[in-house]
Amino acid sequence: MLKHLMLLLTAVLLVAACGQRPSENLEVDLDDVDVGELQISSETMNEIIQNIASPIEVAALINALNVPYSTQYLADPEALSTNTTSFEMAYSLGALSADLGYLNMYEKTGTAVNYLSSINRLADALQIGQFFDFATIKRLATTSSDLDSLMFISVNSFNNMDDYLRETQRSNLSALMIAGVWMEGLYLSTQVAKQNTNEDLKSMIGEQKLILNDLLLILNNYNNEEIIAGYIQDLEQLKSIYDEVKITYEVGEPQTIERDGMLIVVQSESSHVTMSEETLQKIIETTEQVRNMQLNIKA
User: Fold this and answer.
1) In-domain check, residue 281
2) Facing residues of 255 across strands?
3) First and final C-alpha spacing in the chain
4) For burial by CB atoms within 10 Å, which of 13, 152, 184, 278 has the most?
5) In Å, what is the CA distance from 25 to each residue of 48, 209, 210, 231?
6) Domain that holds residue 185
7) pLDDT classification of 280: cutoffs 50, 70, 90
8) Is residue 270 part of a domain?
9) pLDDT grade, residue 37 (50/70/90)?
10) b/e per residue, 171-181, with b = 16+ CB within 10 A?
């Protein structure tokens, strides 16, 4: 059953293309960066995007903890779909995608349709709706009749929207979509951590220190935009707390695997997060403040 839910969640998330987190910070090749303007190459940007933690991990862990479903964790799709600036719309599109993952993990398909509708409106307003097959995704998400097709369409939609935003010189909006989905995923996990003591969840929250550094690297590329500079300032508050989190790595035994008909040796590695309860509480509180501020939600 969990595998089935994971496939459905993976499929309907617009950001399902995001990969697993790395075990260390992304190192940017200086050849990719124009120091004067901090221009990040497409290759480096793609690598950062792939390293952003998908909400799949957050929703799956919350579900595994048997935490009851709660609408209090979610943003209002109707309110966010009425944003007026392209920056707000891009950020909200990301946040609603994260909420959509949570809804589908709990099989709230009726409510999920509302989020799909809002995502579709935002995509249309950003002139990327032609890459979002709303009718097909809605049908597949509510019937779960063809998960493979649903997964392909959703992943392909995100990739096409992201590519088009960059081709039309709007990579700043792509960066905000990424930031929105990450912040909402962190918000969901920290809200659950308020009431549930779990070491896996705590470690996941702590590991976001690495992702936050990458997000700031992306967003600082567009800090000449006033609204993005505001997002950066908000995230810097969170970063100052994450500086208290320590992440160490332990090298494991090398393993031999077969890939493309050849035997290769890969080095295994595990990470360990050290974070006090006081720091965790500060992350929980600051995440809530920043998330609500960025989505213009009154506490």
Assistant:
1) yes
2) 266
3) 36
4) 184
5) 10, 9, 6, 21
6) 2-247+276-294
7) very high
8) no
9) very low
10) bbbbbbbbbbb
Report residue 261's pLDDT band, with 50, 70 and 90 as the boundaries: confident
Whether 119 maps to a domain, the answer reads yes
Give the residues across from 17 on adjacent strands: none
C-alpha span between 47 and 43 (Å, rounded): 6
What domain count does the chain have?
Answer: 1
- pLDDT for 167-201, tens place per residue? 888 888 988 988 998 999 999 999 999 988 889 89
Residues near 98 by beta carbon (within 8 Å), at least 6 away in sequence: 13, 15, 55, 58, 180, 181, 182, 184, 185, 188
Both structure tokens of 101: 């993952």
Structure tokens at 220: 């600082």
Q: What SS3 state is found at 272?
A: strand
Specify if 164 maps to a domain: yes
Tell me the three state secondary structure of residue 252: coil
In the numeric block, the tokens 């936050």 are attached to: 212
